[in-house]
Design brief:
The structure holds 2 protein chains of 2 kinds. By secondary structure, chain A is mainly alpha-helical. Chain A has 18 helices and 7 strands. Chain A has a domain of 185 residues. The two termini of chain A are 27 Å apart. Chain B folds into 2 domains: 37 residues; 141 residues, no CATH class. Helix content of chain B is 48%, strand content 9%. Chain B is built from 7 helices and 5 strands, in the order H-H-E-E-H-E-E-H-H-H-E-H. Chain B has a two-stranded antiparallel sheet with strand order 1-2. In chain B, strand 1 and strand 2 form a beta hairpin. In chain B, helix 6 packs across helix 7. The chains are: A mainly alpha, B mainly alpha. Chains A and B meet through helix 1, helix 3, helix 6, helix 7 and strand 3 of A and helix 1, strand 2, helix 3, strand 3 and strand 4 of B.
Chain lengths: 568, 184
């Protein structure tokens, strides 16, 4: 590629980020109105009130953090049971034109856990396993509800930080209803139609038998209600593909335009939440501080991945092949569209892919792994990115407080033992899971047989699998065979712990903060909206990520990179 | 207990809205507004579906432009990439064999990587403009056409923005090629 082409791509990236920011700004004020009940008028208000009457809840009565967390867990538990049943009984149910059989037990457990926890790790292949009923009533439902769950927890954490002398953090039923009805459904509906206009399919037809053209031979073409799932899959940072090839499939992502629309959808809710935080707390600059930290981490990841892919694979060039490495990439997305998607999907908890991460260059693959292992905070998952980031900010405040000898405070709230415990749990749980489970897997016999690729790359595949599940990402170095019961079951456990332990911990922190009185800022207060503090927070995030995982990176992707450029 | 009842009821309502009303409304509305796209952008010749403009096909005959290598053999009911890592000897061997086969066909190197490396979906309908242009001598010879004519057809069929570089839909190009030859 020429310098001119690269400058055009840089301009496009800036334009794209400007659009994301430009939309996040008004959307953040919409979020505030939705969650304060300002939208609950007119016809949608009617529907909302009917729901409250049906479930016998008073929308003005809020719960403490324990009640909120309990309701959240029960609701998600029911989601798990229903999805599990749909998968197990798939063979007997309708909307199944290809007559797919039921999911086997382990796959069903893994898949139900995966979609309830917003992970969307897939040990099954969509177009050969899942009926249209499973895709719509099973998976699409969880695409909505798991995303809404994340957003609701984020909003409660914001309430906890803002309120004082109360133990109430919100009404989970009301937050869920509002988030789904006013935010997720309308946006998903509009974008689903836009996607169809560009070529994403949306039908309940049986698979099409095509004759092929010229000498190409017959082709069976998979069909299905793809667009409705595609829109919420990206918007809710879910990421589970309708098809095995996920967003690389031309029916999920047919043009360069749909590609940018899908990346936009992945980033928009995570990018909006810090600004919502600024509005709810009445401290706009604090929201921008978090946004900036996320943006800088995102850009660092993107630039590294893009440069690595631009440099390409010298081993292939030696064979008389020109250009970047196109293995696992689609022509229509271009280098920018592929790199931006790969960065966005792993720095949020999305996990949809338009490029096969297993075939990225070693450093490109390292970035996708690293962005997940940082805890997915740049911009992070729908809701989960925000509350994990608050965990890091609290940690940063505490460490800075120790270093300069001041009582740690965040937005006027004293950070004490309980807050620190919850922050540390939130930040460290996914990493501990990855290290423990990878360690156990590595000493099991025959582990290398599950790896498609030999050498250091095989290790990267294994770490990627657990990193993806523990951080609720769901993308994969897909050469790794994770269909054995050991991986489906430990993986399910990792997804559950990685999702709900941080979620409940952050709710506990919110409950504790809500009870505290605000301390007025004094000369001894550490400002948390300064550039210095932003840089400090970035360093805390990077140091935790790097120190925890450096040995694994060294033995996996870095070793592979060195062997690639050394030509060993 | 109260919580469980509330959770079940709320789940039931949202389940019906997001799992049935939403996807079925999208299906109906998009079927009305964009019927062609919603049903797969299929190409019908003489009442037979020959394929989709969005789904690649595996052209092997010399009078046709070749598509990209596919890890799934262009099976449109089982998509996917090779998942081969960048230093895997299996990948390097595959690329080497494909490159040599093209060189043997009379295509001059260096070969653009998209023509010898498998796509992510296994169904990529496109090749880069460059990959189409280097195939011109082979296709023109097989069809007894002047090279400039084939080249002009490629340029006419190519799409793309500064963002992605120009690329060509292989199925469309090959159909245009056939339609062009019929008119002589």
């Amino acid at each position: 590629m020429t310098t001119q082409e690269i400058s055009v791509e840089a301009l496009m990236l800036l334009l794209f980020l400007a659009i994301v920011t430009g939309v996040a700004l008004p959307l953040s004020s919409f979020f505030v109105r939705v969650f304060s009940g300002d939208m609950s008028r007119g016809i949608p208000g009617h529907i909302e009130n009917m729901i409250y009457r049906l479930i016998e809840t008073d929308p003005d009565r809020e719960d403490g953090w324990k009640g909120y967390a309990r309701n959240m867990l029960i609701f998600n538990g029911i989601g798990f049971v229903i999805l599990f049943m749909l998968l197990i009984f798939q063979g007997f149910l309708s909307f199944n034109p290809q007559n797919f059989r039921a999911f086997d037990l382990y796959t069903a457990i893994n898949t139900a856990t995966s979609f309830v926890t917003n992970t969307n790790w897939q040990v099954y292949s969509g177009e050969t396993t899942a009926s249209y009923l499973t895709q719509m009533a099973g998976l699409t439902v969880q695409n909505f509800l798991s995303a809404a769950t994340g957003v609701c927890i984020a909003i409660s954490v914001m309430r906890g930080i803002t309120r004082q002398s109360t133990d109430r953090v919100g009404n989970f039923w009301v937050d869920m209803t509002r988030c789904t009805l006013y935010i997720l459904l309308p946006i998903a509906f509009i974008f689903a139609l836009i996607l169809v206009s560009q070529g994403v399919i949306q039908n309940l037809d049986p698979y099409v038998q095509a004759t092929g053209y010229g000498s190409t031979g017959q082709q069976t073409i998979a069909m299905g209600p793809v667009a409705s799932q595609e829109a919420i899959k990206e918007l809710g940072t879910n990421g589970g593909g309708f098809f095995n090839a996920n967003a690389a499939h031309p029916y999920e992502n047919p043009t360069p335009l749909t590609n940018f629309i899908e990346i936009f959808l992945i980033l928009i809710i995570p990018a909006t939440l810090p600004l919502v935080f600024g509005r709810i707390t009445g401290k706009i600059r604090q929201g921008w501080m978090i946004f900036t930290v996320m943006l800088i981490l995102f850009l660092c990841g993107f630039i590294t991945l893009y440069s690595a892919e631009l440099a390409g694979n010298p081993l292939v060039k030696e064979l008389g092949v020109s250009g970047i490495s196109m293995e696992g990439k689609e022509v229509r997305f271009g280098l920018l569209g592929s790199s931006l998607f790969a960065t966005s999907t792993t720095s949020t908890s999305c996990g949809a892919v338009n490029t096969m991460h297993d075939s990225l260059t070693p450093i490109g693959g390292l970035v996708t792994l690293f962005m997940m292992l940082l805890g997915e905070v740049a911009f992070g998952g729908a809701g989960s990115g925000f509350y994990t980031m608050i965990g890091f900010v609290v940690l940063a405040v505490f460490i800075a407080g120790l270093m300069i000898g001041r009582t740690p405070e965040y937005l006027g709230k004293k950070i004490e033992a309980l807050e620190m415990k919850m922050a540390v749990i939130t930040v460290l749980i996914p990493g501990v899971l990855v290290l423990l489970l990878s360690g156990i897997a590595l000493v099991l016999p025959n582990v290398t047989e599950l790896m498609k690729n030999p050498g250091p790359h095989g290790l990267s595949e294994l770490i990627y699998a657990f990193a993806s599940m523990a951080n609720n990402n769901g993308s994969a170095f897909a050469g790794f065979d994770a269909s054995k019961p050991f991986y489906t079951l430990t993986g399910s456990l990792a997804m559950l712990i990685g999702r709900f332990v941080p979620a409940v911990s952050m709710l506990a922190m919110a409950g504790s903060l809500a009870q505290k009185k605000k301390v007025p800022p004094s000369s001894g207060t550490l400002p948390t909206d300064s550039i210095t503090f932003s840089i400090w927070t970035i360093l805390v995030i990077l140091i935790i990520g790097a120190l925890t995982f450096f040995p694994l990176f060294a033995m996996g992707p870095i070793a592979e990179h060195l062997s690639m450029i050394g030509g060993i | 207990m109260k919580s469980i009842k509330k959770a079940v009821l709320l789940f039931a309502v949202l389940f019906i809205i997001t799992g049935f009303i939403y996807p079925i409304t999208v299906t109906l509305v998009s079927g009305l507004l964009f019927p062609d796209q919603a049903h797969g952008s299929l190409i019908v010749d003489n009442d037979k579906v020959i394929g989709s403009t969005l789904i690649g096909q595996n052209f092997t005959a010399p009078q046709y432009f070749q598509s990209r290598p596919s890890a799934s053999g262009y099976d449109a009911a089982s998509s996917g990439g090779s998942n081969l890592g960048p230093t895997n000897s299996v990948l390097l061997e595959l690329v080497d064999n494909r490159t040599n086969a093209l060189l043997k066909d009379g295509i001059a190197g260096p070969i653009p990587s998209d023509l010898v490396m498998a796509s992510a979906s296994g169904l990529d309908p496109h090749i880069s403009l460059e990959s189409a242009l280097i195939q011109v001598p082979v296709v023109a010879k097989a069809r007894n056409l002047p090279e400039e004519e084939v080249r002009a057809l490629i340029v006419a069929e190519s799409v793309g923005s500064p963002l992605t570089g120009a690329y060509v839909n292989v199925l469309s190009l090959n159909r245009a090629l056939d339609q062009g030859s019929q008119s002589y």
